[in-house]
Amino acid sequence: FVLLAILWLGALAAGLLQGGFVPWFLCGSLGLLLIGSLLGPYLALRGLSGEVMLQAETATAGDSIFVQVKIQFRKIWPLSWMTVRDIWTESSGRVVSGGSRLIFSQWGRETGYRYEIPDISRGIYDKHRVEVTTGDVFGLFSLSKTVGTAGSLTVYPKPFAPGRSADIAGFGGGQDVRNPLALYAQPSADVRDYRPADPLRYVHWRATAKAGHLMVREMEAETAGWAMVFLDGSGWSEEAAFEPAVAVAAGLLQRAAESGARTGFAFAGSGRTTVMPPTLGAADLPAAFAALAGLQPGGEPGGLAALIRHDAFALPPGAAVLCVVAEPDAELVATCAALARGGRRVSVVCPAPAGTGAGGGEATAQPTQAGWNSRFAAAGCSFAAVAVPAASGIGGGAS
Question: CB count, 10 Å around CB of 200?
Answer without folding.
Answer: 12
